[in-house]
Amino acid sequence: MNLLYTLGKWIGGIFLTLIALLLVGYFLISHNINQRIQKHYAFSAETLPIPHDKAMLERGGHLATIKGCTDCHGKNLAGKIFLNDGAVGRLVASNLTRGKGGRPADYSTSDWLMALRHGVDRTGRPLLFMPSHESTVLAEPDLQALIAYCQQVPSVDNELPDHDVGPVAKIMTYLGKMPLLPVEMINHQKPMVARADTSLGIGQGKYLSITCTGCHKPDLKGGDPVAPGFPPSPNLTSTGATGRWTLAQFVNTLRTGKTPGGHQINNEHMPWKMTAAYSDNELASLYQYFRSLK
Ligand code: HEC
Ligand code: HEC
């Protein structure tokens, strides 16, 4: 009896110690992430002329779709809560229009570039979960087109709540498994790329593939799911299943979400409604680029 009692006390003690250690661990992680979220950055302002001609606006509208801006910020760019999950938290994509809750009247081209190239707002506050590490490599004419398009969308009043970063998001960010702080992932010294390759081929495929690397990983060989509840991201190189697909099968999958094997992909997991908007030329370039990777 006495022995059991002592054993029980021991086990209880170990259990309480473990809980205390976990709590201290979480406290330290949470403190670390809060400090990184509140850090203030200062980058030198840049600007570009923004011509609002028809060709520019068309290209800009196309980019806003194929770069996923409209997925997160909504079709009308008026912003939305795009993730709301108790443990992960609430992530809110800003209202990019000039309506209530949106960009202030004096939001300049420099402010757009600060967000797209450096991942901070105009006060130097890190933008959370806004994939600036991807938009930062957009070529100059593409940045011009995107900004031209965004600046002229109709104003929509949409006041949104603040972010609420939950414990799972903090832990995943701490472990480097969630891109909560793109400002930390950017080489801020890199100058703007002068122009993009837009002819059919591997060069254009590589330029476009930056949008796929967030989930399919920088080497495009796939890996761990990007967020809890997601399936793992498949390998897109010549050594993966897609390496055996014909161009027609590849294009069909990215336009319909249905793989040659008959699996229907959920647009929430893999944004095929976004890839559906890529031109034939762009999809064929991606196909060639993926095949070139071993
Ligand atoms: C994965 C979702 C996602 C995608 C894709 C995305 N954004 Fe964002 N964006 C966000 C979130 C979230 C914020 C709010 C960040 C914050 O305030 O902490 C944001 C903020 C912004 C801001 C506000 C900056 C400020 O000054 O407050 C701009 C500008 C912006 N995004 C433009 C774009 C453009 C243009 C694209 C397409 C190239 C794009 N975003 C794609 C999620 C996204
Ligand atoms: C938000 C994350 C995300 C982004 C961004 C993304 N993918 Fe995916 N992709 C996935 C996931 C997850 C799957 C697996 C879906 C499933 O199994 O249902 C997938 C599946 C695929 C497949 C099918 C592969 C197979 O073996 O079945 C192809 C092809 C593909 N993605 C291409 C792309 C391309 C091209 C881009 C960039 C233009 C891209 N993806 C961007 C997450 C993403």
UniProtKB/TrEMBL annotation:
Q: Which residues cross the membrane?
A: 6-29
For whether the record's keyword set contains Mitochondrion, the answer is no
**Signal peptide positions on this chain:** none
Q: Which UniProt keywords apply?
A: Heme, Iron, Membrane, Metal-binding, Transmembrane, Transmembrane helix
InterPro entries with a match to the protein in the record: Cyt_c-like_dom, Cyt_c-like_dom_sf, Cytochrome_c-type_DH
Q: Which GO terms describe its molecular function?
A: electron transfer activity; heme binding; metal ion binding
Q: Does the keyword S-adenosyl-L-methionine apply?
A: no
Under Pfam families, the record lists:
Cytochrom_C (PF00034)
Using the record's annotation, list all stretches that form the Cytochrome c domain.
55-154, 198-294
Name the domain of life this protein comes from: Bacteria
User: Mind telling me which PANTHER family this protein's record contains?
Assistant: ALCOHOL DEHYDROGENASE CYTOCHROME C SUBUNIT, BLL4482 PROTEIN-RELATED
**What is this protein's record name?**
Cytochrome c domain-containing protein
Q: Which species?
A: Spirosoma radiotolerans
